[in-house]
């Protein structure tokens, strides 16, 4: 009896499982892409945990004014309440990726599968885009969510630099963290739900532009650059859940 119930539950859970076709995309990104043309300095600004109407539109406004592109790893719990922002992200040429529905560090595999599938369906319904990009909450690499993402063919995008905007409320600190020493190919972790990040973005975009950087979507950076071997023991991948919210 138990085995019958288990089979039924697995079957129903997989009925509309969302998977990514194998297009030869990298499955795991945790170092800077390299090999860009001389003088070309792309940078990938990535914003997690939104969208929220109090902050995300401010960031989108600043990106538009600067002609800059970025990547938004959205939470289902926010996206379902603000589908207009999902559409705006895609309409204005930014990448959209999945960051789970609840942002829980631990959950059963069946829930992880449902969170990924529900969010993928929501994004596709609202924007017409099926996203192949995933960022693991807390940068965890072996969580149930990360395992589902791997099995279903997503590209798990970590980061190579952090604005550390979960550790401050000061826009000036966010600005300095991003602009101090960016390198071409940098993948920068930020949170569009943080008011101080929204405040800092115009100044960050000014400074990146002054330094000759071009903010682009992660998909474009992966097309234009070359990934080296993704080492297992990089800083980003070793992050574990803590008081900080990624
Ligand atoms: Zn997060």
Explain what you see.
This protein has 246 residues and is of the alpha/beta class. The protein has a single domain, classed as TIM Barrel, CATH 3.20.20. The protein is 39% helix and 14% strand. It contains 9 helices and 9 strands. The N terminus is likely disordered. Bound molecules: zinc ion. Zinc ion binds next to loops.
Task: Tell me the layout of helices and strands.
Layout: H1 2-13, E1 28-29, E2 41-48, H2 56-66, E3 71-74, H3 76-79, H4 83-91, E4 95-98, H5 109-127, E5 133-134, H6 144-151, E6 155-157, E7 161-162, H7 171-179, E8 186-191, H8 195-210, E9 213-215, H9 218-224
Parallel strand pairs: 1-6, 2-3, 2-8, 2-9, 3-4, 5-6, 7-8
The structure holds zinc ion.
Summary tags:
246 residues; alpha/beta; TIM Barrel; six-stranded parallel β-sheet; three-stranded parallel β-sheet; 9 helices; 39% helix; binds zinc ion
Low-confidence stretches: 1-13, 232-243
Architecture in CATH? Answer: Alpha-Beta Barrel
The fourth-level CATH homologous superfamily is Glycoside hydrolase/deacetylase
Order of helices and strands: HEEHEHHEHEHEEHEHEH
Head-to-tail CA distance between termini: 41 Å
- Summed over residues and divided by their number, the pLDDT gives a mean of 90
User: What is the CATH top level name?
Assistant: Alpha Beta
Please tell me what the overall shape is: globular
